[in-house]
């Protein structure tokens, strides 16, 4: 019997007691946020429970990409957003709005940019270029 197995890495901004293996614990300087963005070919960042994040994630999964997902809690949203703004300024990109999709360590855009790029047929080559897709 054949089937498809999907695996998503979730980075939590809260540290529940022994629940999360990959917690995101910022230490005032936001360096962990930068590391998570740079370590993953594709990462979707959004508020916990955001339906637009879910849509972006499902689109990417449908294309065969297994994006990392960073869900931001209310308590750490300001700190995470400040670090994301610093990352985007360094790469001369637009301001960050959630959900934010980073491809190849750079801000790609939000739901609208991902959908438009997908519809135009340009998303798959971009994902292949950064190593998020092999076929």
UniProtKB/TrEMBL annotation:
InterPro entries: GlrX-like_pln_2, Glutaredoxin, Thioredoxin-like_sf. Belongs to the glutaredoxin family. CC-type subfamily. Its main location: cytoplasm. Residues 42-107 form the Glutaredoxin domain. Transmembrane segments: none annotated. It is found in: Cytoplasm; Nucleus. It holds the Pfam family Glutaredoxin. This is Glutaredoxin domain-containing protein. The keyword Transport does not apply. It comes from Arabis nemorensis.
